[in-house]
Amino acid sequence: MGGTQLMYAVGAMLGLVGAAKVFQKWNAGDNDTGKVAAAWFGSCIFLVVVATVLQSFFGL
User: Fold this and answer.
1) 59 by DSSP, 3-state: which?
2) Which one, of 60, 55, 48, 42, lies nearest residue 12 by Cα?
3) What is the pLDDT of residues 23-52, one digit of tens each?
4) Are 40 and 22 in contact (CB under 8 A)?
5) By CB neighbour count within 10 A (0-12 exposed, 13-18 middle, 19+ buried), where does 51 fall?
6) Which DSSP symbol is given to 32?
């Protein structure tokens, strides 16, 4: 498994964890659910962008 595929796999796992955390906050009625969802979504997007950049520059 290449480095890019590993980063995609880690991103997928983090996405699942983030979705569970957001779902828990949403069910609890917390007011900051949108902020937490945006933070998790942003971190997953960042991970995918970093993996793509590493692949294009270094061929990992």
Assistant:
1) coil
2) 48
3) 998 998 888 888 888 888 888 888 888 888
4) yes
5) buried
6) T
